[in-house]
Design a protein that fits this description.
single chain; alpha/beta; four-stranded mixed β-sheet; 18 helices; 14 strands
Length: 496
Amino acid sequence: MLTILIGMSASGKDAILRELVANHGFREIVTTTTRPMRKGEVNGKDYNFISRKEFEKGITEGRFFEYRSCNTIWNGKEDVRYYGTPKMQLNPEQEYVAVVDVQGAKDYVSYFGKYDCFVVRVNASEEVRFKRAKKRGSFDNDDWNCRLAADRLAFSEENTAQTNSFAVNYSVANEGDKTVAEIAEKAGICGADNYVDASTLTTDESIAQAVAKYQIFGRVTPDQKLKFVEALKAQGRTVAMTGDGVNDVLALKDADCSIAMASGSEAASQVAQLVLLDNDFSRMPSVVMEGRRVVNNIQRSASLYLVKNIFSMLLAVFSMISMINYPLEPSQISLISMFTIGIPSFVLALEPNKDRIQGHFMTNVLLKALPAGLTDFFAVSSLVLFCQVFGVNEEDISTSCTILVAIVGFMILYQIAKPMTAGHRVLMVGMVAGWLFCMIFVSHLFAIRDISGQCMMLTAVFTVAAESILRYLSKFVEWMRESLLVLKKKIHQATA
């Protein structure tokens, strides 16, 4: 990834470049120029200083992929100065930064591609720029006036719009944390004014306190990015990390969810769990929504299936211990599963679901399935025992258990399908109607038989009881979950 800094004379471009190179792992693309070397500058570091004749020879030989010239006045004399960038091959695993003019930015984007270049326009008031120019020394009023006129022409609104640049102001750009805050505000991030300079965070304790208090961080080193992720995870947060450079790899690898751009370094793409192939970060909301739909709907479907598994396992163990025949036939189980599990889970799995994912997957599934599975078991096993006491035949017991398990299944479906939207109401009514149709008109296919009045009364009693059992078991399980969370929090605080 290449960051291109553009801006009028003395706007603060070089100050930002030095900050990026010194503290953020960027490598500078050194520009070649014919202008005189200023006091304190180093050849090959600040610029490659060459003669005008040598530069013009390089143009003729095609050694520059971009170059520009500007007319200026220096010490009362007219002068032509050249700036250009030699042709080169960038390392895809390295972050680069360069300072060029408007036309140079266009040439960079044309040469390297728009997805590999991020153009930042540094703005500053004329007063600020004048003060900065005077501080540099060797100040010439004629030269300054000439540069002002050239800048107004080069940085016209129409011209800069063609660069697709992102603008920041020098008044905040010379302070890394504030620069990030301004960018965050322009991007519409909540809490953009709540920022801190990460260079002041020197200990793990200060980092842990900062990530809990602040939202925007500037001057962050690669090692600090990793520590930020670790601190957030230690606080029980689920952490997503985005990055496209080698300096992001450690944090990407440690995050719960890592996202990279396809145009970024190969190392970042290999480590990331999600790679945006079109390099469009605006896709993330739709990605998140799709993830929520998949996870939430799978949780609901898994809960329905797990109810059946818990109930079947417990009832099988009960039958073996009590030496009583298993009360349900395979065709009856198929009837129940079709209208309380199979068709509903299919419908629920396909519908949109934008609810925020909370808790752990298996915990959420068990919390919904366990009370329902236990209710089925307690209700059916009690019904079987009472029917045995009253001498009810096995065929009546089988039909009664089918009715009871189906009714409990609809109770469970009602809970899982909440909130009860119009679509969910249609689903509930359709499933109950389908089940009644099969019970009445095609009963012989599912081994459903007419039951005695005595058996019908027992079924009605245990159906009413099942609702109370399900309600209180659900409350008990929820109370246990909250108690465990409180205990876990106390243990964490005690060991912290």
